[in-house]
Design a protein that fits this description.
The structure holds two protein chains of two kinds.
Chain A: E1 3-12, E2 15-25, E3 30-34, H1 41-48, E4 55-60, E5 63-64, H2 70-76, E6 77-80, H3 92-97, H4 112-124, H5 140-153, E7 158-161, H6 170-187, E8 190-194, H7 198-204, E9 207-212, E10 215-220, H8 222-225, H9 228-235, E11 237-244, E12 247-255, H10 257-261
Parallel strand pairs in A: 3-8, 3-9, 6-7, 7-8
Antiparallel strand pairs in A: 1-2, 1-4, 4-5, 9-10, 11-12
Helix pairs in contact in A: 4-5, 5-6
Chain B: H1 2-20, H2 28-37, H3 41-76, H4 88-102, H5 111-132, H6 137-161, H7 165-176, H8 184-203, H9 205-210, H10 215-220, H11 225-247, H12 253-261, H13 269-294, H14 302-325
Helix pairs in contact in B: 1-3, 1-13, 2-3, 3-8, 3-11, 3-12, 3-13, 4-5, 4-6, 4-7, 4-11, 5-6, 5-11, 8-11, 12-13
The chains are: A alpha/beta, B mainly alpha.
Chain lengths: ~260, ~325
Amino acid sequence: MRLQADNISVKLGGRRVLEGVGFDIEPGQVIGLLGPNGAGKSTLMRALTGQLPAEGAMRLGAHDLTAISPAERARLIAYLPQQRIIGWRLTVRDLVALGRLPWRAFGRRPDAGDEAAIARAMEMADVTPLADRIATELSGGEQARVLMARAIAQQTPLLIADEPASGLDPAHQITLMQSLKRLAENEGRTVLVSLHDLTLAARWCDRVMLLNKGRLAAFGTPETVLSEAHLAEIYGVKAHRARDEDGLIIAPVGLTKSQNRD
Amino acid sequence: MKLSISLAMLALALFILSLLVGPAALGIGDSIAGLFAGGGEAAAIIMREIRLPRALLGLAIGFSLGLSGAVLQGFLRNPLAEPGVIGVSSMAALGAVAVFYSGLAGSSLYALPAGALIGALAAVLILLAIAARQGSTLTLILAGVALSSLAGALTSLVLNLSPNPFAAYEIIFWLLGSLKDRSMEHVLLALPLMAAGWLLIALSARAIDALSLGEEAAGNLGIHMGRARFLIVAGVALSVGAATAVAGTIGFIGLVVPHLIRPLTNRMPSSLLLPAGLGGAALLLAADIAARLVLPAGELNVGVLTALIGAPFFLWLVIRARREML
């Protein structure tokens, strides 16, 4: 489904932390959400997931996101919080099955449709071999993929993930982005993911949004948005851009002069 | 389900055993006759007015405590949460004692349970305000310790000021916890309140499952957090408050039972609820039978016995948790 936002603003404690953000996203894409710490990435995600009251219009397909119940929202948007919490020694399969809660009536056991969605989600996130393991005993990278599988199992047209790659080694970061890419390409879902790694964003995202001080500074292909000028202006870093057969490589190598003075 | 059936059978067996144990030497035949067919007058009185209410309360209160422990642990994602440890029981006892001392207890049969309920409700609300958001074990336990101490101090104050030794004796009853000398009136008073609490807790099953992934993720799974909090606060306050109103503080059942039973389940918080309730009923009935047998002359208070078993268990859990953190 198409995700449209118009003029979203969020006030926290009297301060505007997000101002006039608007965009229009076609389904089936991975959208990277970038920007320095405090730029408003998490705020935007929380506004879209209904965790923060926001002004402005937000629509997903025909649904008005500002006027739906938590239960309806849970069938439209899956949200993967940055903090990875696994409360009990649950098996991976049971944990992933929690993603089916919004689709199950009270007291009902998972039906065949649920089982299929769980199996598919575990496959997409590459955790099928871990199905019977205890989730709390897995490595951080494996846990990140298991929690991702939970969000995929929710089978929502929109998946929002807050820094899912943070704290992961390079191989796990790439596996994670591969899962997101598959989800968008094969299932036509929209994926909105906040990232700090510029190369990861450049190579795996179809388009990127660059936020700065609560405003949308740029939105477009990684090629145009992650320009040296933007990186210098918004992140305050000097970055080297290179290219190989698969795409862009962006490496921040130092601070800009104005940053050095601070 | 198999687990719940086995635990239900165990609780039932202990319930029957509880009916058969007591200072009066009644044979099995006399007991059954006394309970159902009338039999001898003495046997009928002993069975219907002394042993039956005691066994029924053991069943219902044990269920309430086990269930409350399980739901609090699920809700707070914290295996050390329990109505006794976090001060709910002692606040409920304080409520009952305050009503008793103020003389309101004479005004209505419901005054005493109302006092205990208010005490339990206040405790759960204070704990949620302090500890629910961040869910840290330390904050929760410290808040519980503070609350228990406060309730203890205020109860001691009432005890200190109590006008005569009989009032003091009554107050001590709530502190030690016992199922002895309870009548069917007590059962009829407490059971509907406890049952209402059980229902509210059962309705929170989805919420505590989703909360395994933290509040943010639970919210995204369609869980209305305000509603879940209400169900659990009201459910625990009703069942523990009513239990305390008729039997005083009986601690640690809600801590010990979920711990023993969790490894036998898939560890999903909701699948622990019913088995923990049934296990709690079995444990309290067993403890109450033991309390009658250990010191036949001057019967132990069952609350003392559960604390004697539970407190070292709690200590062991803390030591184990510490080792896992290292």
